[in-house]
Design goal:
It contains 1 helix and 3 strands, in the order βββα. The protein is an alpha+beta fold.
Length: 102
């Protein structure tokens, strides 16, 4: 729904009104109550996209999203297993007692 600018020709009151395109044009000023309200022709507002970006991959089908989720979950379970064995190697915990230097 667009925002329309209105101006009262009687009292000079200007305001914006958020209304649907099919709604009738307002005629009565909310300040002076006279029927001298006029809708102004404006440039309109542009579409504003906020965020880091919009890509065609943002709107993938449900079947693609499901397959992607299954693929990522299988990869994460694989890295979880290798991550455990890697952490044991890094800590040097091989289960053997350290040799004494006597």
């Amino acid at each position: 729904m667009p925002t329309y600018d209105y101006l009262c020709e009687a009292c000079g009151h200007a305001f914006e009104l958020f209304q649907s395109m099919s709604a009738p044009v307002k005629r009565k000023c909310p300040e002076c109550k006279k029927s001298k309200l006029k809708r102004l022709i404006g440039t309109g507002s542009g579409v504003l996209f906020k965020g880091s970006g919009f890509y065609e991959t943002d709107y993938r089908s449900d079947s693609y999203k499901k397959a992607q989720k299954e693929d990522s979950s299988s990869k994460s379970s694989d890295t979880g297993k290798s991550g455990e064995s890697k952490s044991k190697k890094e800590s040097g915990n091989t289960g053997k007692k350290p040799a004494s230097g006597d």
